[in-house]
């Protein structure tokens, strides 16, 4: 399903980053980073043009030859990015949306971890495990 | 066309560049340096002629019959139409449509927007009906372009022409001649696309293009154009989606074209504010420049592009901006990779200074994000890079004009502590408080406005101590080497501003991960305010200026006041150094010490040599002593001559001066004179010393008055054992009535004890030397150092008991002293100029010292001072005590050691009865028996029944009258068991008055009283003659002792009545 | 059940903070610790409470959320009134503020009321801060158990 997932903080610095193949991590980081422009643009447009774009899920940010990048921004301006392999055409938009929902849910849980300081990078192993589960579509 | 001036030169040029005759071209020549006044006009003309060419072409085409035109083909279309029936209805339409589109192009190129829109619109209609997708797309594109030109006449023209100042004023303005004015925009053109439609049509066009494999380049171009229009419309997302499409177009491009494509993309992304996207494309372009597929790798361009991508990756070239916490943080993993790529590019460019700089930057700014192994790896890389070109803290300027700010390594090594050190205590400058007096009357004090407010706002970074010009000053650093390898840091200096400061470079080798302290030294060369900004290092081949401002946990800078130059002085003493210092005292500025042992009463000299070891003359030296002693005692022990020292000033550089310190072991030679408080406050070690002294304690005891003449009672042989009791009893038995009255309340008589534990007292003092000279002296500063002096005071001679006895003459009395030799040496004691005696070690002896009585003249003041209500008894006591102390001179010598000393009786205490003997009596007695004057100590012998006529005369020696005196004669018998019998009515008859009242006795006048005595029975009688003042006397009772004081004729007269 | 627990733990926290202040002697009661505890709680809880919420249109929309869903989630009731001057000042009024309802309605404990509203001020401030609205929150109690929360948005 997803090949890469990232959580990006209010200040646009990475808080959590994972991908299926660790060797590709840097390459994905470039891609995810460059997708933030679209995220910001969508957020700006959202506030301008009113009601229909008030969903947290931003949908497809952009697609590359091999990957599709989806975005989701919480009310607290935490950005979730999921990268999907383009060859996986069977994946529906709703499934991506539900992946983000789950991601948001475990993120909110992680914030409740007394040892987690908001806006710090996430190093929790259990969180990592949960994200991997979501990415694999479980 | 050439300028008319240089005809000959131009003729030559023209010859060279003459165009062929068949060309209708005109060549224009301009000399490099010449003004080209008509250039713009010429260009305008050129553009105009272009228009006419196009216009003529358009007119030519538009006259053609649309039905007859041949099929226009794109180059790759040719094979598609092979063997097709060109005359079919469909193809006819296709031909017409394509030609209409072409006409639209010509109109557009000729600037006829409204016509072109009409052509494009009809072309689109026609081509759509025949499914000619490629040309339909082209028609849509043309329609969009024309509409956009109408809507946004200034599109892509926001970059205005930069006019050189050299262009003449009168040259035509570009806006007038080229740009269509906004007024020409017509929004009523039919079929013109509204803004929203433009991007839709573009999208359609792109979709149509994408159906053709070979139309990739057109599709790419259309995407760019669409993006540009979206930019103009401020539809960033729309622009982004067009740009995104470019990536998907499958094109076989050369590396150069690919690079160009990425650069165009990044350029457009920048325009829509997608800096990260732009950076992404820039980086891709950069990698293409040096990819293995690229036949002409270009590291310079790669470097430039990576540098351009930095803002998008939130990298600032100035390390100080990267370190700020509030800066939006980028993505460290990517930043590290980019910086590494930059280092490689710089290296491949052959610019090793840049490579070193960027590696330093990487290590400095990304330190926290690097793993330990990466830190080590990069440090080693830096070392090898810097071996090519050393890093220095100066900005590097690239050919492109970009300035690379310096990168300083403040993480290698890490500085954990930075503190300015005060000078050594003995070198610390101190303010001379009294100096102001020397400035004289023309003192100018500038008025400082608002000083009150400003003093409160003093920054914390200001040191509260001072440094001195030309003195070596220290700053202590605590450094840690975070690398897992040994690190050599050389050329460490302090960075300062303000006064000139000469920093001494230090080199340190830091082991891994071990905090190391390092002291950086330097010398201020001027006086004034010095600011310490940080320190410089040279490590891993990189020179860095580590400024505290950019380092966390430090103030931006520290400032300290440097005062003008002051001399320094070296001090030596002639005495050996002390072994230990007392911990009780504050001896931080002690530079040397001296110690000596002296027997009490002994004195010695200590020579202190002062050497000026600076380059400034010493103009002032002040000596003072500090100890916990009472001032008077301190002055006795330590003496020196300030005048002698001052006569040796100024002390020039390398000159020496000497100061003699006189030490005297001033102790209390009396067992009980110094009260416990005085001792404990005065002498160090008194806690044990005094206790032993106190144990001997008690006041003065009266020695038996029965001693008629001075007795040289050498009782020193043994104070312990059997003889003691014997002595005691004998003393008691010899107590006279007089002594029993006086000694009653004091102590058991004759307790001649030798202090058992008389211990050594240690006196410690600091001789403070305040000295100054040169400019620092002018500025009111001096230095202060001190010599620690330990004086061990050994017990020597001790007066354990004392008493006074009347002497043979009324002008003198005997002071009887019990003197103990506390030393283990034999002592020779001189107690009068002529008399001396030897005292064995630890033995004691009794000596009588004849002393002149205290003359009344010394007491006059007391008698005269009627109003004095203070305790005159104590004053009297003190006067008499001082009188004795001044007259009695006890000189001792320890024969075996050949040491001499002098003991004083200062502080001797006296009882009221003693006082009567010590001072001259205010009344002079003249007693005669049967007409013969009675001599002192004389006994009267007579027979029972004899009548003795007693005549008593008293005269007043005071300078004031005495009032209400009662003169009386009384007889009694002493039973020698402590009881006196006064009931002698049956034995003695007094004829005449036994008492006489004298109302007033004027000064120097005499009064007489006479009576007769008849002894009825034989025996031993005593005649007590006394003169009393009445109890109620208020006038001067205090002066003469207790109220109702009585003076006796001393001694009591013994009368032996025989049968 | 968990309401009660929340109230108990809140009152214990208030006691704890107030007690530890007495130890360090203060003239005026320092409730900043209490407010900070609230801030941290608000900052974290808002992540959970806005999980299913659509993005807020604007500041006022956010305030409305605070008055309704947010307040219901914490205090099981909605705010009774919301007023604004449209220049960054919002007054949220709760006529029966939970932490004040257990006390006498008279003037008896009016002096102590700040202790019981400080935490909530912090919660509001923390929540809004995480939503990107930086503000000052103060509370005003005139008649127990009503409480007005003044929110002053800081723009810079």
Strand and helix layout:
The complex is a heterotrimer of chains A (138), B (1059) and C (156).
Chain A: E1 2-8, E2 14-19, H1 25-49, E3 57-63, E4 67-73, E5 79-85, H2 93-111, H3 125-135
Helix pairs in contact in A: 2-3
Chain B: H1 7-17, H2 39-63, H3 89-109, H4 113-129, H5 133-151, H6 174-177, H7 195-209, H8 216-232, H9 236-248, H10 255-271, H11 275-289, H12 299-308, H13 319-323, H14 332-349, H15 352-365, H16 372-388, E1 396-397, E2 403-404, E3 414-420, E4 429-431, H17 451-456, E5 462-468, E6 473-480, E7 487-498, E8 501-504, E9 506-510, E10 516-524, E11 528-539, E12 542-547, E13 558-563, E14 569-573, E15 590-599, E16 603-612, E17 620-627, H18 631-637, E18 638-640, H19 642-646, E19 656-664, H20 676-682, H21 686-696, H22 722-733, H23 737-743, E20 761-772, H24 774-778, E21 781-794, E22 797-806, E23 812-821, E24 827-830, E25 836-839, E26 844-852, H25 856-864, H26 872-887, E27 890-894, E28 899-903, H27 912-918, E29 923-929, E30 932-933, E31 940-943, E32 947-956, E33 962-974, E34 980-981, E35 988-991, E36 995-1001, E37 1006-1015, E38 1019-1028, E39 1046-1048, E40 1053-1058
Parallel strand pairs in B: 5-13, 15-21, 31-40
Antiparallel strand pairs in B: 1-2, 3-6, 4-21, 6-10, 7-9, 7-11, 8-10, 11-12, 11-13, 14-16, 16-19, 17-20, 18-19, 20-21, 22-23, 23-26, 24-25, 24-27, 27-28, 29-30, 29-32, 32-37, 33-34, 33-36, 33-38, 35-37, 38-39, 38-40
Helix pairs in contact in B: 2-3, 3-4, 3-5, 4-5, 5-7, 7-8, 8-9, 8-10, 10-11, 11-12, 12-14, 14-15, 15-16, 20-21
Chain C: H1 2-23, H2 32-49, H3 59-75, E1 81-84, E2 89-94, H4 98-101, H5 113-130, E3 135-140, E4 147-153
């Amino acid at each position: 399903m997803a090949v890469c997932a990232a959580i990006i903080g209010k200040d646009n610095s990475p808080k959590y980053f994972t991908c299926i193949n660790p060797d590709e991590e840097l390459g994905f980081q470039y891609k995810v980073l460059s997708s933030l422009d679209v995220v910001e643009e969508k957020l700006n447009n959202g506030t301008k043009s009113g009601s229909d774009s008030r969903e947290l899920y931003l949908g497809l940010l952009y697609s590359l030859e091999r990957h599709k990048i989806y975005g989701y921004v919480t009310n607290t301006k935490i950005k979730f990015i999921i990268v999907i392999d383009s060859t996986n055409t069977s994946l529906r938009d709703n499934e991506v949306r539900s992946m983000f929902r789950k991601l948001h849910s475990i993120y909110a849980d992680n914030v409740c971890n007394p040892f987690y300081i908001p806006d710090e990078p996430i190093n929790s192993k259990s969180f990592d495990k949960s994200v991997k589960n979501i990415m694999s579509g479980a | 066309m050439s300028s008319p001036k240089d005809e000959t030169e131009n003729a030559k040029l023209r010859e060279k560049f003459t165009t062929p005759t068949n060309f209708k071209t005109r060549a224009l020549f301009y000399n490099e340096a010449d003004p080209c006044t008509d250039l713009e006009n010429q260009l305008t003309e050129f553009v105009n002629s272009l228009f006419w060419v196009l216009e003529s072409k358009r007119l030519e085409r538009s006259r053609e019959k649309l039905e007859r035109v041949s099929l226009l083909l794109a180059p790759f279309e040719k094979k598609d139409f092979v063997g097709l029936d060109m005359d079919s209805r469909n193809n006819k339409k296709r031909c017409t449509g394509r030609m209409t589109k072409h006409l639209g192009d010509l109109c557009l190129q000729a600037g006829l927007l409204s016509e072109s829109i009409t052509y494009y619109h009809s072309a689109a209609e026609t081509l759509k009906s025949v499914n000619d997708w490629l040309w339909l797309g082209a028609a849509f594109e043309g329609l969009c372009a024309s509409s956009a030109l109408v809507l946004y006449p200034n599109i892509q023209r926001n970059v205005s022409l930069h006019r050189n100042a050299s262009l003449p004023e009168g040259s035509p303005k570009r806006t007038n001649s080229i740009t269509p004015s906004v007024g020409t925009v017509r929004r009523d053109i039919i079929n013109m696309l509204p803004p929203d439609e433009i991007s839709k049509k573009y999208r359609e066009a792109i979709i149509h293009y994408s159906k053709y494999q070979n139309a990739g380049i057109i599709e790419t171009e259309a995407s760019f154009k669409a993006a540009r229009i979206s930019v103009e419309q401020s539809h960033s997302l729309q622009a982004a989606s067009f740009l995104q499409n470019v990536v998907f177009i499958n094109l076989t491009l050369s590396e150069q074209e690919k690079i160009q494509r990425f650069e165009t993309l990044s350029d457009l992304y920048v325009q829509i504010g997608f800096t990260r996207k732009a950076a992404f494309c820039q980086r891709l372009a950069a990698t293409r420049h040096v990819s293995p597929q690229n036949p002409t790798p270009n590291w310079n361009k790669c470097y430039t592009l990576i540098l351009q991508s930095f803002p998008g990756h939130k990298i600032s070239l100035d390390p100080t901006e990267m370190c700020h916490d509030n800066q939006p943080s980028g993505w460290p993993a990517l930043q590290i990779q980019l910086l590494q790529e930059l280092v490689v590019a710089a290296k491949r460019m052959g610019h090793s200074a840049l490579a070193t700089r960027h590696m330093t930057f990487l290590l400095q700014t990304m330190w926290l994000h690097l793993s330990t192994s990466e830190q080590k790896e990069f440090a080693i890389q830096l070392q090898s890079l810097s071996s090519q070109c050393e890093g220095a803290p100066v900005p590097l300027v690239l050919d492109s004009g970009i300035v690379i700010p310096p990168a300083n390594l403040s993480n290698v090594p890490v500085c954990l502590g930075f503190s300015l050190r005060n000078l050594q205590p003995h070198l610390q400058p101190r303010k001379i408080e009294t100096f102001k007096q020397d400035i004289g009357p023309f003192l100018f004090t500038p008025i400082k406005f608002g000083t009150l407010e400003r003093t409160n706002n003093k920054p914390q970074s200001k040191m509260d101590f001072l440094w001195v010009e030309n003195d070596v000053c220290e700053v202590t650093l605590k450094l840690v080497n975070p690398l897992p390898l040994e690190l050599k840091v050389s050329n460490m200096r302090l960075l300062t501003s303000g006064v000139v400061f000469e920093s001494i470079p230090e080199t340190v080798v830091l082991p891994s991960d071990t905090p190391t302290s390092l002291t950086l030294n330097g010398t201020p060369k001027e006086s004034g305010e010095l600011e310490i900004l940080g320190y410089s290092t040279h490590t891993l081949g990189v020179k860095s200026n580590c400024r505290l401002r950019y380092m966390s946990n430090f103030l931006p800078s520290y400032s300290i006041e440097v005062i003008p130059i002051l001399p320094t002085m070296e001090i030596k003493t002639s005495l050996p150094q002390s072994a230990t210092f007392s911990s009780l005292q504050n001896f931080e500025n002690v530079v040397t010490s001296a110690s000596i042992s002296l027997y009490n009463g002994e004195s010695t000299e200590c020579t202190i040599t002062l050497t000026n070891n600076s380059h400034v003359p010493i103009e002032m030296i002040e000596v003072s002593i500090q100890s916990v002693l009472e001032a008077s005692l301190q002055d006795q022990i330590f003496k020196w001559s300030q005048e002698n020292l001052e006569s040796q000033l100024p002390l020039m550089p390398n000159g020496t001066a000497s100061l003699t310190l006189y030490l005297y072991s001033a102790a209390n030679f009396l067992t009980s004179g110094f009260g416990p408080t005085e001792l404990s406050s005065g002498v160090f070690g008194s806690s044990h010393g005094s206790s032993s002294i106190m144990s001997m304690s008690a006041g003065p005891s009266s020695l038996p008055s029965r001693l008629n003449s001075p007795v040289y009672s050498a009782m020193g042989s043994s104070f312990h054992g059997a003889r003691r009791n014997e002595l005691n009893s004998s003393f008691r038995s010899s107590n006279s009535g007089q002594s029993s009255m006086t000694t009653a309340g004091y102590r058991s008589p004759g307790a001649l004890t030798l202090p058992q534990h008389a211990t050594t007292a240690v006196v410690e003092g600091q001789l403070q030397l305040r000295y100054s000279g040169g400019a620092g002296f002018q500025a009111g500063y001096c230095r202060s150092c001190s010599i620690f002096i330990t004086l061990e005071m050994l017990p020597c001679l001790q007066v354990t008991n004392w008493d006074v006895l009347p002497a043979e003459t009324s002008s003198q009395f005997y002071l009887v002293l019990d003197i103990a030799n506390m030393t283990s040496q034999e002592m020779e004691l001189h107690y009068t100029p002529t008399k001396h005696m030897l005292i064995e070690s630890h033995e004691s002896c009794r000596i009588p010292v004849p002393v002149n009585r205290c003359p009344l003249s010394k007491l006059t003041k007391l008698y005269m001072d009627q109003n004095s209500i203070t305790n005159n008894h104590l004053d009297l006591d003190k006067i008499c005590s001082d009188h004795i102390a001044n007259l009695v001179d006890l000189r001792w010598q320890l024969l075996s050691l050949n040491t001499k000393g002098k003991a004083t009786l200062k502080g001797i205490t006296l009882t009221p009865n003693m006082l009567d003997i010590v001072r001259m009596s205010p009344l002079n007695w003249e007693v005669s028996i049967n007409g013969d004057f009675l001599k002192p100590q004389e006994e009267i012998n007579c027979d029972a029944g004899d009548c003795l006529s007693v005549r008593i005369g008293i005269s007043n020696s005071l300078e004031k009258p005495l009032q209400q005196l009662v003169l009386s004669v009384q007889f009694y018998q002493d039973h020698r068991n402590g009881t006196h019998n006064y009931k002698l009515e049956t034995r003695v008859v007094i004829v005449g008055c036994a008492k006489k009242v004298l109302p007033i006795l004027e000064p120097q006048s005499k009064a007489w009283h006479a009576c007769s005595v008849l002894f009825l029975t034989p025996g031993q009688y005593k005649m007590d003659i006394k003169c009393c003042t009445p109890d109620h006397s208020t006038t001067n009772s205090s002066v003469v002792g207790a109220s109702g004081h009585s003076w006796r004729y001393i001694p009591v007269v013994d009368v032996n009545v025989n049968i | 059940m968990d309401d009660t627990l929340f109230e108990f733990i809140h009152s214990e926290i208030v006691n704890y903070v107030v007690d530890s202040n007495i130890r360090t002697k203060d003239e005026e009661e320092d409730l900043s610790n209490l407010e900070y505890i609230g801030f941290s709680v608000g900052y974290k809880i808002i992540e959970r409470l806005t999980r299913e919420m659509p993005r807020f249109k604007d500041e006022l929309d956010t305030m409305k959320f605070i008055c309704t869903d947010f307040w219901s989630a914490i205090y099981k009731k909605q705010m009774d009134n919301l007023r604004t001057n449209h220049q960054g000042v919002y007054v949220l009024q709760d006529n029966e503020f939970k932490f004040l309802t257990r006390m006498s309605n008279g003037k008896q404990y009016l002096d102590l009321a700040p202790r019981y509203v400080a935490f909530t001020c912090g919660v509001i401030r923390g929540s809004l801060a995480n939503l990107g609205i930086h503000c000052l929150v103060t509370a005003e109690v005139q008649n127990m158990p009503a409480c007005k929360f003044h929110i002053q948005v800081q723009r810079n």
